[in-house]
Amino acid sequence: MTALTTARSLRTTPDGLLWEPSERWVRGRKGDVTVVDSRHPVLVWEPDAPVPLYAFPRGEVREDLLRPAKNPPTGTHAGSRTFYDLDLDGEPLENAAWVYPGDDLAGHIAFEWFQRTGRGLDHWYEEEEEIFVHPRDPHKRVDALPSSRHVQVEIGGTIVADTRRPVLLFETGLPTRYYIPREDVRLDLFTRTEQHTGCPYKGTAEYWSWHGEGDVPPDIVWSYPDPLPAVTAVKGLLAFYNEAVDITVDGERLRRAVTHLIEPRP
Known about the structure:
Layout: E1 11-12, E2 18-21, E3 26-30, E4 33-38, E5 42-45, E6 53-57, E7 66-68, E8 82-88, E9 91-99, E10 108-111, H1 114-117, E11 123-126, E12 129-131, E13 142-146, E14 151-155, E15 158-163, E16 167-171, E17 177-179, E18 190-199, E19 203-210, E20 221-223, E21 238-240, E22 246-249, E23 252-253
Antiparallel strand pairs: 1-2, 2-5, 3-4, 3-11, 5-6, 6-10, 7-8, 8-9, 9-10, 11-12, 13-16, 14-15, 14-22, 16-17, 18-19, 19-20, 20-21, 22-23
């Protein structure tokens, strides 16, 4: 028997883009209209962008729905100069698609994702599973592990959570998140908000804000009431932004994390 080996083929363009082919079947829709149906997508990482986007061979895109952009932007998507408006029933969506500069990806078209930017295609599928916000990064891993560590969370010197049964979520490129059972959180010190966000790895989150004293960012606490199958262990548990609260694990005070997700505050 001959062993089948595969190697990642991450490539770099002169414009600073990273890209590699994907073997996933990807479809993108606007409403009920399928605009992209691709079995040869390409993952593209723009310079300084933490997450990838997809670009698709022109032959797997409904180019008949694209029109040269009337008001193309500048300085976006790695300096792309060719943008398209998406025309559905005479209602154009401005700058919904573009072509990256250079020869490497000249035969491919990329699209905005509505849940990420508020415009573009609003439903995306990898195989038969709907995905949200942006493509999943094949170089990223997310693990949710039940633990018996002693975790305490403080805000302004007030202990707002204390548990010995957390679930630790390890996600490549982000600090460890400590998901805590609701019974071990002082939810009476927080107010539920209207905020919701989507994550392609975890699902849709709901949020709470601190209503005590101190300079604390809004939506400091979140939970996934119906997480994706890979992280079912965090279902209904509560997590805090390490960037803005004080977390002590097994008696050791953690340094506050610094990420792109939240502005650091005292």
